[in-house]
Amino acid sequence: MRKYIVIAFLIVILDLITKQWIFNHLDFGSALVITPFLNIVHFQNTGAAFSFLSEASGWQRYFFIVISLVAIVIIIRLIRERLKQPLLCLALAFILGGAIGNLCDRSFYGFVIDFIYVHYEAYYWPAFNVADSFISIGVALILYDAFKNKKPLLS
Hints:
The protein contains four helices and four strands; from the N terminus they run αββααββα.
C-alpha cells in the first residue's frame, strides 16, 4: 500500500511544482510557443474537465472539492482492497495523485491551473495540467487492465 501512496504523493509534488512555476512566471492568459503543436499557457479553470460549470456563480468550487474528497476516499479503499492487482493499483495511484493535485489548487485558489495546450492548426484541445495527465493515464490503465483480465473494477 505504501508504494502506491508514495507514487501518488510524487505526482502531487510534480503537479504542484509545475503549477506554481506557471503561476509565478507566466502572466494569466499568456502563452509560450514550444513547438508548432504545443504551447505552455496560464489558464485558470474554475470548472471541471473541459471547463464544465466554469461559468457557474462560485458554488462549483465547493461541489468539486466534495466530489474530490469522496473520490479520494474511494480510491484509497480500492487500492487497499486490490493490492494483488499491481497494474490496477498503479492506475489508481495515478488517479489519486491527480485528484489530490487538482484538489489542492481548487482549495487554495478556487480554480485549477491548466498550462499544457496542444493544438493542430486551428484545432485546440482544452488546456490541461500534470494532474489531468496522470488521471487520464490512470483511466487508460484501468481500461487496459479490465480488458486484459476481463474483470470489472468493482466486482
